[in-house]
TrEMBL record:
The chain crosses the membrane at residues 12-33, 119-138, 150-172, 178-193, 200-215, 245-262, 397-417, 429-448, 460-478. Keywords: Membrane, Transmembrane, Transmembrane helix. It comes from Cohnella kolymensis. The keyword Ribonucleoprotein does not apply. The keyword Iron does not apply. This is Glycosyltransferase RgtA/B/C/D-like domain-containing protein.
Length: 495
């Protein structure tokens, strides 16, 4: 019985790997074009795009400026990256180092130019990780009723098994992959704890996935901190003293290590986001830009720089963002805290900004970046829309996205109240509160920390949290044996 179960799980894993691979590469490979964010990662490894088309083509072939030996690539996998010219460091580097090793090995075997890098060797890693997360969920029984259990798994696959997701496997801006894959893996493992599956392997996988997720981007740390609360609570409540201490100490170490990545964020990145939080955020479409500038504690003459991002230069931006005079005029006087204070003291304007954020959250991939590879002659922002059903459904709420998000929020709160009345475990309630708090934080963070700049991309992590909340509503309430559920399901058919 145990052997046949392992065979079924292995077969499911192989099937998912093949399915994802076919969806990525057939009939044409999909990915996401570079919006200049790839550079911070690529520079750490001496990689450059062969075509350099950026926005207009999803690139899979790259040039290595300093190729080395297979042995050195192997050694590099275990060494930290310390000399990135961009000053940017992230857990995403782990996977690039592994990819470079296998790429060098393949180059040697087929006698290919050692300076060529193929994205395939990075993509394979994420296919395996994501397939593993899916298998972990699909192999378990989440509902006592067979049909309800099957329905829950179909909904999970429908929401999280889609083409835009697979496109993220094929790019160098790895924050998005690590957002998705390791947050979903963490979510599934947290559900394992809810089912009292609490082996050391579950704890180890959960702590590692939260660390990799958090270390991929400073903005991920608040979500990691919140999700660590139910994790620590479960260990304290259910484990023996020795295991309890091991788990809790590991969680604390993981959080300190994760926060270290937050502190390592380069100064240029902080300056760029602060500039955009003010000039492309607070002052963008502000009816009183001069007064807003004063409210922020800045010289009123800076209001003339409204509605531009940090990369706009003279004559639209009369200031040099890297000049010491502008440093004292602007950067020394402002921080993200002041930006947040401004929004909180101007709730009507803040509500308008959040409404824009809600609309930006509907697409699941940036609409201004192509997702297929194009030649120089056809660099005209073309897209592949196959397997796009869930995104299409979300886009139908365009124009009243805030209403849609408010409904999901209201239903989540009602669900929490229902769980409390049913005397559900405190762990279950804490887990849902943590996910709700993380979603709320990720809804606010983009507009406060970076303004309207690249807003669709920055709302990506919120989208993942939102989809998890939607799925939890299904998981907690889908029960074909319930008379109330059947009546709700039949009602739309009568009208």
């Amino acid at each position: 019985m145990l052997k046949s179960n392992k065979i079924r799980i292995s077969a499911l894993f192989i099937f998912i790997v093949i399915a994802i691979t076919l969806l990525i590469y057939v009939p044409t490979a999909i990915g996401l074009a570079d919006n200049s964010d790839f550079n911070r990662t690529m520079r750490a490894f001496g990689l450059t795009s062969i075509s350099g088309l950026k926005y207009f083509s999803a690139e899979y072939g790259y040039k290595i400026s300093n190729p080395t030996t297979i042995v050195q690539y192997f050694i590099n996998m275990f060494l930290p990256v310390t000399d990135n010219p961009a000053g940017y460091y992230s857990t995403q580097f782990i996977f690039i180092k592994i990819a470079l090793f296998f790429n060098a090995l393949a180059n040697k075997l087929v006698q290919r130019d050692p300076s060529l890098f193929n994205m395939l060797f990075q993509t394979v890693q994420f296919i395996i990780i994501y397939a593993f997360a899916l298998v972990l969920f699909l192999k378990e029984k989440w509902k006592n009723n067979t049909y309800s259990n099957i329905a829950v798994k179909i909904v999970f696959a429908f929401i999280f098994f889609r083409l835009w997701l697979f496109g993220l496997l094929q790019l160098f801006f790895l924050e998005n992959q690590l957002h998705l894959f390791f947050l979903i893996l963490s979510f599934v493992l947290l559900l394992y704890l809810e089912k009292d599956k609490h082996s050391y392997f579950v704890y180890l996988g959960l702590i590692l996935s939260l660390f990799i997720f958090s270390g991929s981007k400073p903005a991920n740390f608040p979500s990691t901190l919140l999700l660590s609360v139910p994790l620590a609570y479960y260990a304290i409540k259910n484990e023996g003293m020795r295991k309890k201490i091991i788990i809790c100490v590991s969680v604390v170490v993981m959080l300190f290590a994760s926060y270290n990545y937050v502190k390592q964020a380069p100064e240029w990145m902080k300056n760029v986001t602060t500039f955009q939080a003010v000039f492309f955020g607070v002052l963008y479409n502000n009816p009183m830009p001069e007064q807003a500038t004063k409210d922020l504690g800045l010289p009123p003459e800076l209001s003339k720089v409204e509605s531009i991002n940090a990369y706009v230069e003279h004559p639209l931006n009369p200031y040099n963002n890297f000049d010491s005079d502008f440093q004292s005029l602007f950067f020394d006087r402002i921080s993200k805290i002041e930006v947040l204070k401004y929004y909180l003291t101007h709730p009507a304007f803040f509500a308008e900004k959040l409404d824009v954020s809600a609309e930006a959250a509907l697409p699941l991939r940036p609409t201004y970046l192509t997702n297929i590879n194009l030649s120089n002659e056809r660099a005209d922002l073309l897209f592949d829309f196959r397997m796009n059903v869930w995104e299409s459904i979300r886009k139908r709420f365009s124009g009243f996205a805030s209403v849609f998000l408010s409904i999901v929020l209201a239903l989540t709160l009602v669900n929490l109240i229902a769980l409390f009345r049913k005397k559900a475990s405190l762990y279950s309630i804490l887990l849902r509160l943590a996910l709700l708090g993380a979603a709320a934080g990720q809804f606010i963070i983009p507009i406060v920390s970076n303004g309207n700049a690249d807003l669709q991309k920055h709302m990506f992590l919120f989208n993942v949290h939102l989809d998890i909340l939607i799925f939890l509503l299904v998981l907690d309430n889908l029960d074909f044996r319930s008379r109330t559920f059947r009546r709700i399901g039949i009602a739309p058919c009568l009208f």
